[in-house]
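Appendix B. Worked example

We walk through a single record from start to finish. Start with the input: the chain for HxlR family transcriptional regulator, Paenibacillus durus, length 130.
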Amino acid sequence: MNSSYSHKTIQPDISLSICGYSKVLEIVSNKWTALVVYAMEDGVIRYGEIRRRIEGISKKMLTQTLRQLERNGLVKRVITPSVPPIVEYSLTGLGESLLEPMRTLNQWTKENYSLVEQARENYDRDNSGE
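Next comes the structure step. The output line below is what the pipeline stores for this chain.
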């Protein structure tokens, strides 16, 4: 038995409402968010080019994702008056600072996702009779 265990009521020390980490995960954990950020990692890009680069993203989802990123200070939108207007997007400094942790997670995925898949297969096989 753990000697530090106490019979007192333990207060939660992890909270979705006040934990900054969980709030940031809420922003960046959407699959489209990560892909849109990656699409902008080389600099200024137009809406149509982002859409062409990301397989399977709808216009509605791309628009919602860009608005969310802009609202959270990760993306800058510039409209150049013309007919039709030219709309360009780029990462802000804050958005660019997100690239390194995303690259680290991407590298972890490349190195470990096959192990995750194997664990799932093992779990499903071992628990198929429950």
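Two observations about the output. The longest strand covers residues 75-80. The helical segments are 20-28, 31-39, 47-53, 59-71, 93-126.
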